[in-house]
Each structure stands twice: as structure tokens, then as C-alpha cells.
UniProtKB/TrEMBL annotation:
Source organism superkingdom: Bacteria
Taxonomic lineage of the native organism: Bacteria, Bacillati, Actinomycetota, Actinomycetes, Streptosporangiales
Protein name (Swiss-Prot/TrEMBL): Uncharacterized protein
Amino acid sequence: MRTTEVTTRYGRVSRLADQAAAGAYLFAEHTIEPGQATPFRTHARDHRTFVVIQGRVRLETARDDGGTESSVYDRLSGWHALPGCVYRIVGAGAGPAVVIEAGSVLGETREATGPDVPDAVACRCPDISDYTVHKPWGSEVWYTQNLPDLPYALKRIRMTEGHQSSLQSHRQKLETNYVIEGEATVLSGAMAPEDLTAVIDVASLTTTVHRPRSGWTNPPGELHRVIARTDYTSIEISTPELDDVIRWQDDAGRGHGRIDSEHVGGRS
């Protein structure tokens, strides 16, 4: 993953989605210095999802009377900014805060110095979902499960040291992962065969190691597997086809597609 970092009045912003994901979704990391604030923003056509991965922030949203309401978010908590909502993010801790922004790219984003933005609306930003999917190797939290019909999905992936995902591919799904804790080995670099009974030579795949603040993109059809070198956590944005999984090898003997038993007890 090649990131493009830009200095801002509030800190820095890095674009995380590489050229392979251009036009599919927005994926960015904001560093917000203590006491500093992003501009007030609104996007008429787009949903955005924000997750704090370091520090503490205060979210300020516009009210109908021209004032603002605020909520505080700590590490691994977050919110959705709905189309038309006016909001800004303020660094509210003793040190810099780091926030992941993910979302659709259907229209433009407007910025303003205050909460009164023409044609925008005052609305509450709902918290991200805590819907949990239990995996043989760890778990996933599907942050966008509480917003229907989005053109993107965002999740947190946790894998336990020594475990690995299935060797898999997707027919339609495009995904980008960004490591926020621990280390992972990623196997990738070859396209899946048409024959679903084909035997894959795993040794022929390219191996890369990813540590915090690094990541990768898997386009549709690419074979890939993640191996936890330590307990590791990543944030993954993808197109919305979450059940689009072909498992070529799997330590737990799972088949293709959605595994219903993994969703038992998941909250939305």
C-alpha cells in the first residue's frame, strides 16, 4: 500500500486506498492534534464511517438552531456520518488522535468554517455497529451492519497468533486492509483458476509482512491468505459483497460463502 500524506491545519491526512481501489470507496487516516479540529463537512450523496484507532476525539454535529451537539469517542469506537449531516472532529485527548474514515465516493464533500452550511441538514450521527462474526481464527466486527444498502462495508478483523485465514478469492468483492495492531503475513499475487477443484500451489504465492500503519488491497479474483505472526487487528473496507468467498483451503474445513453458524449471537 502506497499512502499519500498531506499536512492539514488540524494535523495530517493519508489516503489508504491504492490505485486498484480508486473509485470504489474512500479510505483515509486522519491525525488530529490535541485541541485542533477538522473543518465542518457535509456530503449530500455519501455515507461515511469513522473509527478511532488512537486517542480521543469529540464529534460535533450541527443542530437546527445553528449550534452544535457533541459526543466523545475513544479507541475502537466510532460513528456514521449520514448524507447531508454537518459535522467536524476535534482532538479531545492529551496526545494526537488517529481516526480512520471510510465511505462511498458518489459525490463531493463540502467544507465550511462553521456549522451553518447551505442546503445541509441537522441530524444525529449513529454509532457504528458491534455486530460480531465468530471465526475459527478470531472474530470480525461488522461496523456497517446497521446501515442497509451501502455501496461499501467496513469491519474490524482480529486474528489470534499462529492462526490463518482460508486461502480464498472473491468473484466480485474488492477489499483493502490496514493493520492497526500486531503483525501479519499475507500471501497473494496470483489469480484464482476457473476450476474450483484445482489444487493451489501455496508456495508459488508472493509473501509480504505487514505491521501497524501498513496494508494491502486484494482485487476480485486474486488468491490471498492472512497468517497472524502475532495477535493482529486490521480495519478492512470492501465493496458490499460480504458473502462472496471461495475457500480453496481452510483449516476448519469450511465451504464456500456465508457460514451461518459464525453469525449466531451477533448483535446489530
